[in-house]
Design goal:
Elements (H helix, E strand, L loop, with lengths): L2 H4 L25 H21 L3 H14 L4 H13 L3 H14 L4 H13 L3 H12 L7 H15 L2 H14 L4 H13 L3 H17 L6 H13 L3 H14 L4 H13 L1
Helix pairs in contact: 2-3, 2-4, 3-4, 4-5, 5-6, 6-7, 7-8, 8-9, 9-10, 10-11, 11-12, 12-13, 12-14
Length: about 260
């Protein structure tokens, strides 16, 4: 499978300042439980931070410390599953994700990470089903991204109408999600709805400019085809120039050259 597909969405770790965490020591018998809970969270945050820094040895050590406090911790098993995944231990990763979800079925971060794992394994329908649960969680802080991920999985699983709806929901929650607006533009273009495709493409383009994000070969190629459809030759040439300058070795540039020659 292409890395572009895998990069569609990535695992979500804890949002705390990870490597800055320190383990709480217990002081006094009256506070043992709260101290253990804090220590558990600190170990998980440290493990996640070391995982993000690609220090898997330290990440494993802190996961083990966390599980010594609570062997059923979904968050600790979540990080352990991610470590297994990075090490190529795919069946161990799957089993660990599934165990974590059984311990805490309402943990949307774990489900999102399991969906990313399934997506990487090209199990698109299974990823889609996990993300349906995540997107339904109205309390999930990353819900706009969850709908975007749901749309990406829906496209890969062949659910085009569901994908359009998921991308629309993502943009309802966060209009700056560029991938959602671009994918909606592509879906409408493929369906022959060129006016709607252009509207979503313009939303994508404006958001990209506002956030100072360069267009990709994929988005520039879509822009060229849209401008060809509306006979806007100057804009098409401008996108084509950017495509040639930035991405001359891409499949999109080769398709542009072929179709440009056919149009002459």
């Amino acid at each position: 499978m292409s890395m572009a597909r895998y990069a569609a969405f990535l695992p979500l770790l804890l949002s705390a300042s990870l490597l800055g965490a320190c383990v709480t020591s217990t002081q006094g018998g009256f506070n043992v439980r709260s101290s253990q809970e804090r220590a558990l969270q600190d170990y998980i945050e440290l493990a996640a931070g070391y995982y993000a820094a690609d220090d898997l040895v330290s990440a494993k050590r802190h996961v083990d410390n966390a599980l010594a406090i609570d062997r059923r911790s979904a968050e600790a098993h979540n990080v352990r599953a991610l470590i297994h995944q990075r090490e190529g231990e795919h069946e161990l990763a799957r089993d660990t994700f599934e165990y974590a979800i059984r311990q805490d079925p309402s943990n949307s971060r774990v489900r999102n990470n399991f969906a990313a794992f399934l997506y990487e394994r090209e199990e698109y329908q299974a990823a889609y089903e996990q993300l349906q649960v995540v997107a339904d969680d109205t309390e999930y802080r990353s819900r706009p991204q969850a709908f975007q991920n749901l749309g990406l999985a829906a496209v890969a699983a062949g659910h085009r109408e569901e994908a359009r709806e998921a991308f629309r929901r993502a943009l309802d929650l966060d209009r700056t999600l560029q991938r959602s607006s671009l994918r909606l533009a592509e879906l409408h273009f493929e369906d022959g709805n060129f006016g709607q495709a252009r509207e979503y493409y313009e939303q994508f383009r404006v958001s990209s400019q506002f956030n100072d994000v360069s267009q990709s070969a994929r988005s520039l190629w879509l822009g060229i085809r849209l401008e060809w459809r509306f006979d806007n030759r100057a804009a098409a040439r401008d996108y084509a120039r950017q495509l040639e300058e930035m991405y001359p070795d891409t499949e999109q540039y080769r398709m542009y050259l072929q179709q440009r020659d056919e149009r002459r």
